[in-house]
Amino acid sequence: VCLEHQVKYGEHVGIIGSAKELGAWKQHVELDWTQDGWVCQLELPSEALVEFKFVIVSKGGNDKTWEGGDNRAIQLPKGGTLDIACNWDKTEEPLGPSGTPKVDRAPKHVVPQTAGDVSAASSAPGTDSSSFGGQWQGSEAVFMRSNEHGNKSSDRMWDTAGLGGMALKLVEGDKSSKNWWQKLDLVRRLVSEPVDDQSRLEALICSAIYLKWIYTGQISCSEDGGHYRPNKHAEISRQIFRELEKMYYTKGISPEDVLVIRKIHPCLPSFKSEFTATVPLTRIRDIAHRNDIPHELKQEIKHTIQNKLHRSAGPEDLVATEAMLTRITKNPGEYNGAFVEQFQIFYSELKDFFNAGR
């Protein structure tokens, strides 16, 4: 369930309804804030008729503001998964006889078509993709059997005409920030600089837009010849988070600042302990050295995902992993079940690292 609605600082959104999973009209279920809106996942009885409404809960939790109109109602199907997107106070908006069927948000997956070091690309059916995978606007994934990752930023242009303040600093800084960790560090520097309310909000807005464009591939990341494991990205993310927390608890912070801070959080990599470890995300290394998969596939996993991820991680690595997962699960039984299971586990770990698990 997703609700697109703006609330005031300190407020949050809940859902309440007739089913016990929705509080039986007594206690609301809290929704989580994401860049797409207020969301929650629920398991409800199949074929049940469920009525519900959204509520805005005050900072102290004592007051609730209910949306107007009649109760929303949905007849659940016999089984399956539904995505329901709603708008505040529009309780009569159609949900369809069984809600809105879930839309597959898979990115442009590719499968190898020719032999050689680099496989040609074509579309392939997708599996459930990450939250930013469905919005991906960058290059398609290409499976490689040798290190052919090139510098993709050589023809990029930076137009600074008419820019000033934080926007100019961001564009100028991006010129020398080729890879993902450098771009993250640029954001860290940007949010560490503000000295007044106006520059703080400007820095937050520029950072939120910049990170979103990176996560959707509109701003691509490329390698600079360096070698940095994902723990570097996680540590920079931790530093950015600390700066944002300082802002969040600054006396007199505006609701606009808080809103933009919430937009930034989903675009930062996770800094859980497993990702700040000296050698994180090692499962893919074990997968690439299995003896129960073809040599060509091992090479593609090694060069397309493993080496690239451990040398210069970027959002494009999750897109490539999704593409590979689509390929190895396309024909059930084609590859060893234990291998597929381990790859699926790795995919979940990688989504967690990219903060893309929703």
Automatic annotation (TrEMBL):
Matching Pfam families, A to Z? Answer: CBM_20
Q: Which domain of life is it from?
A: Eukaryota
SUPFAM superfamilies named among the record's database cross-references: Starch-binding domain-like (SSF49452)
Instruction: Please note every region of biased composition (Polar residues).
Output: 120-135
Position of the signal peptide: none
Region annotation (Disordered) maps to 114-135
User: What GO molecular function annotation could you give as one example from this UniProt entry?
Assistant: starch binding
CBM20 domain ranges (all copies): 1-90
Protein's name in the database:
CBM20 domain-containing protein
Q: Where does this protein come from, organism-wise?
A: Aegilops tauschii subsp. strangulata (Goatgrass)
Q: What is the lineage of its organism?
A: Eukaryota, Viridiplantae, Streptophyta, Embryophyta, Tracheophyta
